Automatic annotation (TrEMBL):
Keywords: Glycosyltransferase, Transferase. This is Galactofuranosyltransferase GlfT2. Residues 469-661 form the Galactofuranosyltransferase-2 C-terminal domain. Belongs to the glycosyltransferase 2 family. SUPFAM superfamilies: Nucleotide-diphospho-sugar transferases. PANTHER family: GALACTOFURANOSYLTRANSFERASE GLFT2, RHAMNOSYLTRANSFERASE WBBL. InterPro entries: GlfT2_C, GlfT2_N, Nucleotide-diphossugar_trans. The keyword Heme does not apply. Pathway: Cell wall biogenesis; cell wall polysaccharide biosynthesis.
Length: 669
């Protein structure tokens, strides 16, 4: 590390021009739940390997023991968006998600060889610069007794091959001291370009969420330098423009907002419209996709654009997702596609719902490893315009798999995807949803198969057909006939060929909803007293509560007896009086397959449905599923050729423009 002569933290050094790629920031509101993402007031650290293995290590602060310290309990006060006041003898660490520097990502994806840390203090303090390695071990880089004012430190990126961060701590050792500003910058000479972005927000009947987001985007001055336009693609009938505070939000964006109305083409249709508008305008080097119901950190948007500029090749830069309900919880840190089963999952070694309030960055080794992903969700995703020109727009699939497939498609032509720490949004997580059994079951099934046809490296889809058929059987044993109906329709439509994608994107949602509504398990009532008191025909065997089979033999036995039960007639009284009430978390096949009827709570807890065993549907759907899966496997190679040959056409801006025109909405409609 080399100390650099003090200059203004916002000026470029006269010898080596620098670009600020990240500022130390504090929360934009007074929400205490987000504070652990910006400041660490604890003394938590990751245990050393030898300490973690020792039963006598009782003084190490472990992941679940890290103390939660609030501002009210400390001598630290947030005084502004970039400033913090420390009373004498106070200590604060910026080893946090939003304020530490993700050195490993810059080391891997850019040619930058060093980062400069600028710090400006109001008076004397002790500064300690730290770094970590891929194992999460903390290493002190430098201790400086600062007299106040501005100091800069050049920090090499060479040690961060597999992981690691930089951060700094401040100790108020000689009276009160205020951090006025701090920032991270890198040499301008390494930049591939100086880019700007257009933002595309797709919304459907969430005008209040959307307008709140527009207020955020217009309220941070730094975004004015990197955002050209904000496209809001309004596909609903509860319009963003009708919100009481819309005019104020529009004014805050200074003429950069453009509202576009069109029929409901889902997320893929809305985001493709934003992509197409960005291409046509020709002003931006990126399009940033944002969900309508997110709360963003404007600094993260700025960082994503800066990182994209310095990547050595055009790169998709995604943001992480925090929970809107538990704002210190990191819900998605990195995701992959299993190419054999063609199903998504978190990257190995990561953990969902990681709570920074109890397990800060310094105390969590896995967060220090660089995580290389296959794709990033479109809750926040910065896509270079070069990628749109190279591979086209989104698949015309309404929802589901549009984001993951696009990143796979881009990756195949050498455009990688990076989920960048420090760039993130808050979003309602899907832990309280089960969209595999609602109307979205159709899109889950069809689009998963479509993505596999386009990208699977395995003959006849590897393990996908087997897993798909097994999922149908599981839903049948769970008495979820509506989900199976939609999954079978999905395969039938897929077998029709690529022509159905654009032709039905604006119409098939209505048909999907109508088909689902014909099944009792899809009828949700909000009335807790809608169904009578349950009554079992006979008691459970030996009084044992239902539970997941504990071994393969018990698993097979439960499946066999449950399947055989589906062939027996249903007791007439079970049609009116449910046998059990089953919580959403307990609504598994090994329990429901042994019942004639049950009242099942919805995943979000707001309603209940009556599940009724139907032997006729079971036999019919099972035969139909087996037939369709055999047909799909037999025709796999032929379908793969058809869909791959048509990919360039149905993702082209020209084809999408025809679909937008066919689903246009009049201004007074």
């Amino acid at each position: 590390m080399t100390a650099v002569a003090p200059t203004s933290p916002v000026e470029e050094n006269s010898v080596t021009p620098m670009r600020v790629v990240g500022r130390v920031v504090l929360p934009t509101d007074s929400d205490p739940d987000t504070l652990p993402l910006y400041l660490d007031l604890s003394n938590a650290r990751a245990p050393r390997e030898e300490e973690a293995e020792s039963s006598k290590a009782t003084t190490v602060v472990t992941l679940d023991q890290a103390p939660v310290i609030s501002l009210a309990d400390s001598d630290v006060k947030v005084t502004g968006r970039r400033s913090v006041l420390l009373h004498e003898r106070a200590h604060v660490s910026f080893a946090t998600y939003f304020n530490a520097f993700p050195a490993a990502y810059w080391r891997r994806w850019t040619d930058v060889d060093a980062v400069r840390l600028d710090i400006e203090l109001s008076g004397p303090a002790t500064l300690v610069i730290y770094k970590s390695n891929a194992r999460g071990r903390t290493q002190r880089v430098e201790l400086v007794a600062s007299e106040g004012g501005h100091q800069a430190f050049d920090l090499p990126l060479s040690p961060f091959g597999d992981g690691g961060w930089y951060w700094f701590d401040i100790y108020a050792t000689a009276g009160d001291v205020e951090l006025i500003a701090a920032q991270w910058s890198v040499p301008e000479s390494f930049a591939r370009q100086r880019g700007t972005a257009s933002i595309a927000i797709t919304t459907f009947n969430r005008p209040d969420y959307c307008v709140a987001q527009l207020h955020q985007l217009g309220g941070d001055e730094i975004l004015k330098d990197v955002i050209d336009r904000v496209y809001v693609i309004d596909q609903g009938n509860q319009l963003v423009a009708d919100q009481p505070d819309f005019a104020e939000a529009e004014a805050g964006l200074g003429g950069r907002l453009e509202l576009i109305r069109q029929g409901n083409l889902g997320g893929s249709g809305g985001f493709s419209r934003g992509m197409a508008e960005t291409l046509e305008a020709g002003d931006s080097q990126y399009v940033l996709l944002l969900d309508d119901d997110v709360q963003d950190e404007p600094e993260g948007i700025y960082r994503a654009v800066m990182f994209g500029d310095f990547c050595r090749r055009p790169t998709i830069v995604g943001g992480h997702m925090f929970s809107m309900h538990d704002k210190a919880a990191l819900h998605a840190a990195g995701e992959r596609i299993n190419p054999y089963t063609f199903w998504w999952a978190e990257m190995p070694g990561t953990k969902t719902e990681h709570d920074f309030g109890h397990r800060p960055l310094r105390a969590t080794p896995w967060l220090h490893r660089r995580i290389d992903v296959d794709y990033n969700g479109w809750w926040m995703c910065l896509i270079p315009v070069e990628a749109l020109r190279e591979v086209g727009l989104s698949l015309p699939v309404f929802i589901k798999w549009d984001d993951s497939e696009f990143c796979l498609r881009a990756g195949e032509v050498g455009i990688p995807t990076v989920s960048l720490p420090g760039a993130a949004v808050w979003h309602v997580p899907w832990v309280d949803k089960d969209d595999s059994i609602d109307w979205q079951a159709y899109y889950h099934q069809r689009n998963r198969w479509l993505a596999a046809l386009l990208h699977s490296p395995y003959r006849k889809g590897g393990g996908l057909p087997r897993m798909s058929f097994a999922a149908d059987v599981k839903h049948l044993l769970s008495l979820q006939y509506s989900a199976v109906e939609l999954r079978l329709k999905a395969l039938e439509d897929l077998l029709e060929g690529p022509g159905h994608l654009h032709a039905t994107i604006g119409t098939n949602l209505g048909e999907v909803r109508r088909m689902r509504a014909e099944h009792p398990d899809a009828v949700v009532t909000k009335d807790p007293a809608a169904y009578p008191i349950t009554r079992r025909h006979r008691p459970v065997a030996k009084g044992r509560l239902p539970h997941r089979p504990s071994n393969p033999l018990a698993f097979a036995a439960s499946a066999a007896t449950g399947a055989l039960r589906q062939l027996r007639p249903v007791r007439p009284e079970a049609l009116d009086i449910p046998e059990e009430r089953v919580a959403a978390a307990a609504a598994k096949w090994w329990r429901l397959s042994h019942l004639d009827s049950a009242v099942v709570t919805s995943a979000d807890g707001t309603g209940t449905s009556m599940y009724i065993r139907d032997p006729k549907r079971f036999r019919s759907y099972l035969r139909r599923s087996l037939r369709l899966h055999r047909k799909a496997v037999a025709r796999w190679s032929q379908m793969q050729r058809e869909y791959q040959a048509a990919l360039g056409q149905f993702t082209s801006p020209e084809q999408w423009r025809e679909t937008f025109a066919a689903n246009a909405v009049d201004a007074d409609d």
